[in-house]
Amino acid sequence: QKEVEQDPGPLSVPEGAIVSLNCTYSNSAFQYFMWYRQYSRKGPELLMYTYSSGNKEDGRFTAQVDKSSKYISLFIRDSQPSDSATYLCAPYTGTASKLTFGTGTRLQVTL
Amino acid sequence: DTAVSQTPKYLVTQMGNDKSIKCEQNLGHDTMYWYKQDSKKFLKIMFSYNNKELIINETVPNRFSPKSPDKAHLNLHINSLELGDSAVYFCASSHGEREQYFGPGTRLTVT
């Protein structure tokens, strides 16, 4: 079992839809949960991150963590064509260690 | 203006050759990384340096040798290139491990 699992997609939604992107993980030592966005042929860019369980909102984006079920979600409200990208979750233990990336979910928002 | 830059952007070479990829960051970060992203878009850390000192060395063939001449630069030298080395290589930097800033990537094709 991989440490971090994501459905690779592609996930295709119409403009304006609410999108839910999810990750599961196996390492209970993860404390920080990062979301990166990667446009085609570009480097990943940090979108937002949360610490421990709970929600965090940033504009149209909401990150949610449920540590009891080891489940991470990213919600995008009012999705736009410019949101079309691959979204990678990357949990982290918080000590001097590496980020562990999921394989990413490719999202396509259509007009 | 670019925060993390890499050269070259594209690299096409034959098996058995030796090649280098250069990375520079102007963010004043103390930690730099090399990642490999394979054809399935899986992003995996290879090395990380903190203040020019190697701190993470994942299971990478010793044909790959990183070099950090100073805090702002981390280069990757690859000896005896193999077909399986074809991938996109990303450099990243951070202050602390969480918020990593990625370069645009170097697309390496070995023929």
How would you summarize what this structure contains?
With 111 residues, chain A is an all-beta fold.
Explained architecture:
The complex is a heterodimer of chains A (111) and B (111). Chain A has 111 residues and is mostly beta strands. Helices cover 0% and strands 53% of the residues of chain A. Chain A contains no helices and ten strands. In chain A, a hairpin with a 4-residue loop joins strand 7 and strand 8. Chain A is globular and about 40 Å long. The model of chain A has no long low-confidence stretch (mean pLDDT 92). Chain B is mainly beta and 111 residues long. In chain B, strands 2, 4, 5, 6, 9, 10 and 11 form a seven-stranded mixed beta sheet that branches. A four-stranded antiparallel beta sheet of chain B has the order 1-3-8-7, with no helix packed on it. The radius of gyration of chain B is 13 Å and the shape is globular. Helices cover 0% and strands 57% of the residues of chain B. The chains are: A mainly beta (111), B mainly beta (111). The interface between A and B is medium-sized, with 22 and 22 residues.
Structural class of chain A: mainly beta
How many distinct helices of chain B? 0
Global outline of chain B: globular
- Tally the beta strands of chain B: 11
How would you classify the helix and strand content of chain B by structural class? mainly beta
Q: Main beta sheet of chain A, described?
A: 5 strands, antiparallel
The largest pleated sheet of chain B is described as: 7 strands, mixed
Flag low-confidence runs of chain A: none
- Total helices of chain A: the number is 0
Distance between the termini of chain A: 37 Å
List keywords for this structure.
heterodimer; A: 111 residues; mainly beta; five-stranded antiparallel β-sheet; five-stranded mixed β-sheet; 0% helix; globular; B: 111 residues; seven-stranded mixed β-sheet; four-stranded antiparallel β-sheet; 11 strands
